[in-house]
Design a protein that fits this description.
Blueprint: E1 8-11, E2 32-37, E3 42-46, H1 49-52, E4 70-78, E5 82-86, E6 92-96, E7 116-125, E8 128-133, E9 143-152, E10 155-162, E11 180-187, H2 198-203, E12 210-217, E13 220-222, H3 226-231, E14 235-236, E15 245-254, E16 257-261, E17 264-265, E18 271-274, E19 295-304, E20 309-313, H4 316-319, H5 324-332
Parallel strand pairs: 1-3, 14-17
Antiparallel strand pairs: 2-3, 4-5, 4-7, 5-6, 7-8, 9-10, 9-12, 10-11, 12-13, 15-16, 15-19, 16-18, 19-20
């Protein structure tokens, strides 16, 4: 570079790594080039750890954008209808929230401007790119060691480091450098079985706290349910049978219908239960209070292979054996 050349380098706020203290003048910062504006003689940088990771997949040219490929991107605009995601060299993609309504667990995500995560290209039409959430990295019931990154009002942002399998460049001199870091979310309600304690529980997890979390769906994890998945096999559609008692989570309540998420591998449907299948005397006490992510236990009444649906009941008399020892066990848990 000529001694008379002046190049301005900028790290915009959205691309600035969250740090516990303010950066000082003359401090050295490791960065990656996001884009170059030759007319303004300006280089745009980022020091976010997601982009500095060795195995980060970046999209820097429109020609390289492949359908179904996954790339790291940053949300630069977020509203009720869509998210605008920016990649390298100002390549942009749109993620329409209406398309996500069919993605089980998408309602648990909390999106915000500046959030950096992996996105999958759903469609490409000329310069228009339509995105969706990246495919699952972890499976339902998979328990992982996690590190807390940030404490949010909606829960915890966590990271999981794992060593990939397959055709990846391997650094024999520094094995730890081969690890891939994936971000996940632990929603507030998945911190404790008791709603009154979730905020107190949230305050116990400071940045860099190491703990365990279990994958519920995609990059949504639960700390609350680790003990359950440690002691119970994760069911799949094939081994579900009549009489099984399963842990379930309330998703939506519509008048007399309750939609439940029952943790079954490769089963992307919510299970609907009528209010009368929740209460022993529903005609006398129909004002049941249910909250999202509340845990209830259900008993499988039937299974329909053709439509891949199951019928369940959540009445206390159906899921509880009536023994005091069982009550004591549930209270202890």
């Amino acid at each position: 570079m000529s001694s008379f050349s002046v190049i301005i380098c900028i790290i915009e706020k959205l691309y600035l790594s969250p740090v516990p203290k303010t950066l000082e003048v003359n401090a050295k910062v490791r960065c990656r080039v996001l884009a170059v504006n030759k007319e303004r003689r300006t280089v745009y940088l980022t020091n976010r750890p997601e982009y500095l990771a060795k195995h980060c997949k970046i999209l820097s040219t429109l020609a390289n954008a492949r359908q179904n490929a996954t790339y790291m991107g940053t949300i630069v605009k977020c509203n009720d209808d869509y998210m605008l995601v920016k990649f390298f060299n100002n390549i942009k993609g749109m993620l329409y929230k209406q398309r996500m309504s069919s993605v089980l667990g998408s309602e648990m995500y909390t999106f915000y401007e500046g959030q950096t995560m992996a996105f999958r290209i759903l469609l490409k039409n000329g310069e228009q790119i339509t995105l969706t959430l990246a495919d699952d990295t972890f499976g339902l019931g998979e328990i992982c060691p996690v590190t807390v990154l940030h404490t949010l009002e909606s829960g915890l942002e966590i990271k999981i480091a794992y060593h990939p399998e397959g055709d990846y460049e391997f650094d024999e001199d520094d094995p730890e450098a081969n690890a891939i870091e994936v971000k996940g979310l632990v929603p507030l309600r998945l911190l404790s079985d008791y709603p009154d304690l979730v905020y107190a529980k949230l305050r116990t997890y400071t940045p860099n706290t190491e703990t365990q979390a279990v994958c519920i769906v995609k990059n949504i994890f639960s700390i609350r349910d680790v003990s359950y998945f440690l002691t119970h096999l994760t069911n799949n559609w094939q081994n579900i049978k009549q009489g099984d008692i399963l842990k379930a989570y309330v998703k939506n309540v519509h008048e007399d219908i309750v939609e439940l998420f029952v943790p079954i591998r490769n089963y992307g449907k919510l299970v609907k239960v009528h209010l009368k299948m929740l209460l022993v005397n529903s005609h006398k006490n129909a004002n049941v209070q249910l909250t999202p992510e509340q845990v209830i236990y259900v008993k499988v009444l039937g299974k329909e292979p053709v439509t891949r649906t199951i019928t369940v009941t959540a009445k206390l008399t159906d899921v509880w054996d009536g023994e005091l020892s069982s009550s004591a066990h549930y209270l202890e848990e």
